Amino acid sequence: MAEKKINLRKVAIIGCGFVGSSTAFALMESGLFTEMVLIDVDPAKAEGEALDISHGVPFVKPMEIYAGTYDDIADAAIIIITAGAAQKPGETRLQLVQKNVSIFKSIIPEISKRNKHGILLIVSNPVDILSYVAKKLSGFPENRVIGSGTVLDTARLKHNLGEHLSVDSRTVHAFIIGEHGDSELAVWSSATVSGVPLSRFCEMRGHFEHEASENRIQEEVKNSAYEIISKKHATYYGVAMAVRRICEAIIRDEKSILPVSSLMTGQFGIEDIYLSMPAIVGAHGVYERIPISLDEDETEALLASAKQLKTIFDSLEL
Q1: Same domain, yes or no, for 186 and 86?
Q2: Of residues 180, 207, 233, 284, which has the active-site annotation?
Q3: Tell me: the pLDDT tens digits for 89-102?
Q4: Distance CA 262, CA 149 (A)
Q5: Is 284 labeled as catalytic in the residue annotation?
Q6: For burial by CB atoms within 10 Å, which of 102, 159, 192, 221 has the most?
Q7: Range of the domain at 132
């Protein structure tokens, strides 16, 4: 099959469950793309979502939205993969791994046969493991296989800190790094509110029990997905907005710093595994990882998170 030139205004979404359809809706409203193809193992599901979402196009910028097949992704600039088994109440993201690796074995080769120059954006969980699986199976260069990582977790952290301090969450500068899951960690040592160290800002706002507050907020962030799943059986709006933000950085070549999941190549002694670290994201995917400052405890927690992911990946059969 002759290769098509990449269309920078075209996006493909593979998987039309709650996350995929919410992402399609968020991207329709964003105005970033003029063409969007939806693909699902159930073609009727993809057709229904495309029809439903396209009825809103008269309220936004012109866009063609349709259900398609893998042949329709040949010129897509970004291919978003949300397909996979859903996380059940009480189930960790890592327990999903074997089921979703099998699904990726059927999806990724179909993509790489048709599109060799787009960016793969992995959203399915466990996202760090599946991003690495996607890189291995696709043969794409590491910079063009990105996981949504802890972009949403970081937004949850900023939201909770904003509520705790009664300030606009957009002025909070802090990251969740490591695994998108139970071993993730908040980087408190370099967190600021508009340049003011977090502990100092907390005291300005009348909060002095720093360690207790940090532990409570980190646990709330880590467990927020489980809480949402227990109440409504799935999480999708937050991650759809996180995916929209990543797409925005890529399509506009913003070179924004986002904590996406990408391949570690020796940072903090970690290599050959995907996990989330702040990275410069733009038209070529990940340009560079940012050497964020960690204290001794944070470094130890990051290494433990990486070790857990490495153990799981080494157990897979690819």
Answers
A1: no
A2: 180
A3: 777 766 778 889 99
A4: 8
A5: no
A6: 221
A7: 7-147
